[in-house]
Design brief:
10 helices, 0% strand, 221 residues
Length: 221
């Protein structure tokens, strides 16, 4: 049995682990509800999730890939739900509304382009490029944390469970993209996989406690 024979099992593992990763937002929102406030938290992770899932959903629909469509439909519903909960409990409602307005305008423009583009191959390439670029920017976000960890020689600021889950998610999607010969899926997830492994290696090099916990929190916030 070679890797190509494992395409379907790998696809289902990619979908399952991604949905589990999406569901972690429930824990965050549960805390907002319990505290009746989002405090100083930002809505950007949820809005970015809406953007990412929405773009990948359009890519999956255009390419007629049921795995990508399924996982991103679920992700889009969850991210919108999280955003609504965030809006209800935040005191920064104007900032959330601005982000939502930008997102809606962005998707209206994108849907307008899709409606007039007659070449499906060009549409797949452009949507795939947009989706993969957005994912690369997202997975590259922890680079600032890595520099901070190296500077303070402590991994206290790194969320180990989330990083480990990201490794599995990225690895499964990379394998699926490789088998399916889809560079738009394979490349950003390969980068995400490598970055997750680098972060996990840092746990072996540096302790999880630091002499400056307060500095760590203020730097990463």
């Amino acid at each position: 049995m070679n890797l190509f024979d494992l395409k379907e099992p790998i696809a289902y593992l990619a979908v399952a682990t991604t949905i589990l990763q999406f569901l972690s937002g429930i824990l965050v929102c549960k805390q907002y509800v319990a505290n009746k406030t989002t405090a100083e938290a930002s809505s950007f992770p949820f809005i970015a999730g809406v953007l990412s899932c929405g773009i990948w959903l359009l890519y999956g629909l255009t390419k007629r890939n049921d795995k990508i469509v399924t996982v991103n439909t679920i992700g889009l519903v969850l991210m919108i739900s999280y955003s609504v909960i965030f809006y209800f409990y935040t005191f920064k409602k104007s900032a959330v509304l601005r982000q939502c307005t930008f997102t809606i305008i962005f998707f209206l423009i994108l849907l307008g382009y899709i409606s007039v583009e007659e070449d499906n191959e060009n549409l797949v390439i452009r949507l795939g490029s947009l989706a993969s670029s957005f994912t690369i920017v997202t997975v590259a976000a922890p680079l600032s944390k890595l520099l901070h960890v190296i500077r303070v020689k402590s991994t206290e600021c790194l969320p180990f469970p989330m990083i480990l889950m990201s490794l599995f998610v990225s690895a499964f999607w990379y394998l699926y993209g490789y088998i399916d010969q889809d560079l738009f899926v394979a490349v950003p997830n390969f980068i995400g996989m490598v970055l997750a492994m680098v972060q996990l290696v840092l746990f072996l090099i540096f302790p999880s406690t630091s002499h400056s916990s307060k500095q760590c929190k203020s730097t990463i916030a």
